[in-house]
Amino acid sequence: MESLQLDDLLSAVAAGGANCLRSVTELEPAAGPHASVAPAKFASGRSDMGTYAYETRYDEDGNPSDVVIIDSKQSQLNRVEHGLAEAIRDGHAVLSRLPRLVVEYSRNGETIELSDLELPHRAFDGHVRAGSLDGNPAPTLEQYRGVRDASHADARALFDASPASLVFGSWDATRAARQGRWRSLLTGEIIGYCRKPAEPERKGGARSDPMGMRIELSGPELKALADRQRAELSGKTYETLTKAAAGAKGDKRAKTSNAGLGGIPPSLEALAGVACRRIVRSHVLSFAALRQIRFGAGSEGDAACRALLVALALSGLARSDAELVLRANCDLVEASPTRVEVLGRAGATTEFAAPGIEAADALLASALEHAERVAGVSWNGVVLRVTGDPAIAAGAADDEPEGN
């Protein structure tokens, strides 16, 4: 089977080119078909356990079926971005040159860097807009104003500063006018065909403590224990412990389970896994959406810029697909090779070999060299580094909400 080449990308992104690229992989539980998996869990106002997301889809025979979302579209994009960010940290020869925006914070003596591959709104994230450079607010910087003013008619400023914002989507939602709205060119998900239960099914859980199933302290003792660990405890845990300590007056003793002490008897208090008869991972990369964007480089130059964005997406996707790491109790393996197809016009379909990391990186290097030559593209790493607002760093809490 043929591998994707630069000419294939250039043909796809040119006027009248293919509609999209589709990548589909059949997966299965690593433990075997008898095993359940833990889907993505979402916050729910009805239950403090959270909930799974079920939908109705059609199966391979065209019949409607219940499915559960094992990994959502946004989560899949985040995993692709993570793969690119890790390659940059490893000093990858090409990806370390990727233009990006970085916000730098200082907290507790440590420097924290957040790039547009990690910030949820990419180039238009609140962390960037709240930052400054040499004492000047980021929104006043001419370079950043150019990024925010980019349009589909000429997206070159955004392309040169933050290609990730074009590939993975971004929205300048808080801006009063000229909001940049860029849909994600790449989408993906993992779903499992299953039977939706009438009521949430639960699984058992327990905890044993070699010192004893029940460990109780006096109010002052529990308060002292919480205070000693205060710097390491979440705000919610510390508050729970201090309230329990305050309620233990006189001879009354306080339970220490919230401090991780003592045992917990077996109980059905967590969402059970879901058994799936079929698990599918799919991604779509839209050439049609990409052709709506111009870069002020003429027909050939614009095509080169588009092909470079496609190659960047494929490089990240190859990394994400290579690491089937979702969450605890959700270990998956490929049941068959990934099927990659370019969907052309009038139902034409061309199948290609799924690019691994090495092949995808070679395609990216080729696309970059071509874009440098015909569109004047220059990748030199970070193009804008802003200093994060210290008040934001001071006000940040590490408590994690319930959900995915």
UniProtKB/TrEMBL annotation:
InterPro entries documented for this protein: CRISPR-assoc_prot_Csb1/Cas7u
Protein's name in the database: Type I-U CRISPR-associated protein Cas7
Organism: Prauserella halophila
Top-level taxon of the source organism: Bacteria
One Pfam family, short name: Cas_GSU0053
